[in-house]
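User: Structure tokens for both sequences below?

Assistant:
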Amino acid sequence: MSNGNSSKSSSKQSTKKITTAKEVKETKSVPITVQLNILKVLINERPLIPLLRILKKNKELHTRELLITMGSWGYGQSLMKKATNLGLIERKVKKEKSPGRGKPRIYNSLTNKGRDVVGLADKVVYTK
């Protein structure tokens, strides 16, 4: 008999509080004004966002440093070319102080359009 009573009392205690729609706090939406071409780049060229974020953090990196930081060589170079063609990255040849062997380094930095794209990506919390 005691087993039957304990199950009835436990079922009364296990009532859960259900949150209704009135109790849930509403979040306000904030309008974001964006140029259409920046939005198109953000949507269509999503793989470029990590590359742009690296350049945003570091301001300017030469190509080898950038590819090492990305952890990608072949695919990274194709992303760099695409970003350059879209006008998101600017590449400048800078001569080294000491004359050395090989080619001069090419430094990569964000353009204003690239800053706008990565800024919008950060606003909308655009992740992989």
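Moving on to the next sequence.
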Amino acid sequence: MVKIILIGIIVALVYSQPDLRLTVADWLSTASDFLVESVKG
């Protein structure tokens, strides 16, 4: 469920800010770290 929400946010960011690819990439890295921490609990 969380992954679906994150994917939705990612898609929204990509479509709303196509010029800020580097920013999106950094955000993806942060989201990935957040997922790892969430899984570790």
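User: Anything stand out in the second?

Assistant: The chain is about 85% helix and 0% strand.
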